[in-house]
Amino acid sequence: MTRAIMWFRRDLRLADNPALLAALAEHTDVVPVFVVDPLLMSRSGAPRRAYMCDALNALDDSMGRALVYRYGDPLDVIPALVAEVGASAVYAARDFAPYGSRRDDAVSVRLEASGVPLRFVGSPYAVNPGSITKDDGTSYSVFTPFSKRWLAHGWDRPLDAPRDPNWVGAPTVPCEGRPPRPEVDFDLPAFDERGVHAQWAEFRDRGTDGLDGYDQRRNDPGVPGTSRMSIALRWGIVHPRQLLADLHGTRAHDVYRSEIAWREFYGDVLHRFPDSGWRNLNRKMDAMVHDEGPVAEERFAAWCRGETGYPIVDAGMRELKQTGWMHNRVRMIVASFLVKDLHLPWQWGARHFMAHLVDGDLASNAHGWQWTAGTGTDAAPYYRVFNPALQGERYDPNGDYVRRFVPEVADLPTSIIHAPGGKGGAVPLGYVAPIVDHAVERDESLARLKALG
Ligand SMILES: Cc1cc2nc3c(=O)[nH]c(=O)nc-3n(C[C@H](O)[C@H](O)[C@H](O)COP(=O)(O)OP(=O)(O)OC[C@H]3O[C@@H](n4cnc5c(N)ncnc54)[C@H](O)[C@@H]3O)c2cc1C
Fold first, then answer.
1. How many structural domains is the chain composed of?
2. Confidence of residue 425 (pLDDT cuts 50, 70, 90)
3. 265 CB within 6 A, ligand 1
4. 362 CB near ligand 1 (under 6 Å)
5. How far, in Å, is the centroid of ligand 1 from the Cα of 215?
6. In this predicted model, what pLDDT tens digit does every residue of 84-94 receive, in sequence order?
7. Fewest CB atoms within 10 Å of the CB: 226, 234, 338, 394?
8. Closest CA relative to residue 343, chosen from 447, 452, 441, 450
9. 261 and 308 together in one domain
10. Are residues 41 and 86 in the same domain?
11. Which domain holds residue 312?
12. Residue at 185 is within a domain
């Protein structure tokens, strides 16, 4: 008779959970635990923590309320629990992010000292970061060749949820209670496996308004053209394998697969360059001059509030505040505006995103920002500066998106909605005049780039 601990982290699901299946297959019973780590809690924004609490609660329900919550540094908590319940192994999905991998290494060493292995099975990725390499064994720093190798590598079929798992958990094993759920003033999306799969099935089966039209509609923030799976992927309510298994060979499905590959690529890059979570991957860009002082700070505050006078930027920032999510196209537009129109470090924006996004994920966030800022892998060349008015006209041609989030411009004719005050029009009452002149700041940005040599 042997006992294992299943340590849940960002894999809050029962189906297609290889670590859990291995623990159950190799041991008589399993103690399911979630460690509430004060360090991680202090770094997560309220929307992300609220969603995590809901997801944990749903997971706990699905295991007959056996989940054991413990509080503290996992380095102390996990070995103490091992001794307390007499476990002979601990199972977990490997975490490849910087803090998680350092933590796991430390826990592993401490457990080994008492002869208990920390067994990693699977990860939040279809292909574990670090596995995709060139023929000479080196890693990729450009997306397209990475994604070709990633496709050729392939991944396993998703696994079913365990049948009648033999939990030994709460209340037999003392539980320190659920973490407090912060209040957020908007509804969070589905957080249980059934709800998330229903949401995915609705998108998958919606025909050309959903997955089958993904290639056509994914850039238009005014329509529900993307899957909104990022939040569930962040917490592992669904695994990318489960989504990939539903894809066929059409162009729309290929494009969707390729977006999942971006997530995998950024996970790989962050694993190989752990300090790229907050530092320029391309160190030459460290010399870029940024604005600072009270004016820069006030502009940053206006950007955060969604009061820049550029409707598509303001709509994005307000969408973030009001829903905890932002459309990918608009993430790129607001990021470009922060870096190239306001001349502020991308890290300021990335920190704000991490505080407000429910899907906030260090790898995708940092490298989404670095891509836009021209400091990362595969970076959009720095000199490609997004023009917010033109982006709005192109991707929100009817103005539906900005009307939804910027009511001050809702009554403007579509022809001027993305540049109120331009083309001889006046800024509508109650809305702000542009805080900077895009044409001027674009030139300024390019001059600063040139000065780098
Ligand atoms: C500045 C910036 C910051 C970002 N921060 C995050 C973040 O913190 N967390 C996060 O999950 N994504 C982030 N992204 C990527 C992307 O914007 C979101 O994954 C996407 O908007 C989520 O919506 P969706 O699930 O409807 O995506 P879909 O279009 O339905 O795509 C399916 C899945 O593919 C993955 N994906 C799609 N686009 C990207 C991309 N550009 N990079 C990486 N993965 C992608 C996501 O997991 C997504 O759920 C960021 C992008 C930018 C430009």
1. 3
2. confident
3. no
4. no
5. 15
6. 999 999 999 99
7. 394
8. 441
9. no
10. yes
11. 283-451
12. no
